[in-house]
Amino acid sequence: MSMTYEQFVEYATDLKNHSDSIDDGWNICQYQCPMNGSFINYLVKKEIQKRNNSTLKSEHSDSPTEDNIPIVCEYHILYNLSYSCPDVFFNMWNTDGKLLSLEHVWSLVHSFLKQTVIHDKWNVITQEMHPFFNTPFFRLHPCKNTHVLEMLDFSSKNNFEFNPLISWLSTISPLIGLEIHLSYGKKYSKKY
Length: 192
Hints:
By secondary structure, the protein is of the alpha+beta class. 32% of the residues lie in helices and 27% in strands. It is globular and about 40 Å long.
């Protein structure tokens, strides 16, 4: 199950156009490769989410005690050349600028997936250096992304009435704390 970079850009552009129509905050950014000067497109969304104290409790940390704690979230959707699939890097931090720990990020996984993640957490979400900025970001392992694309029956040769990038993103969103607006789920008349 492989997605070409050109397909990724087409799907990302479609996602951004829909995002613009509902004011959802996704942007397409470009990174200039220092090796050859080429530009690489990727998606970015930054938002503030409210998390209640019970979702932030972790045995490995000292959580604040107030309810509705604001968490700043930044999501980067890149194309992974090695796995030929979308790749998500994300960061979460308190409004005072302190990054959440990896344990906190694991604790934020939606409850229906939490047991699965706990048993395989080092193979699901890890912390790595962002390939463009050389700063630590959390990352959903790309082999999980290819697995999701397989479950969605994605093939680069298929014509879809939906955007596979949006389907993939809505499938992984409970793992990374991203809320997807319901309007992304509508059927598209465009064939991919």
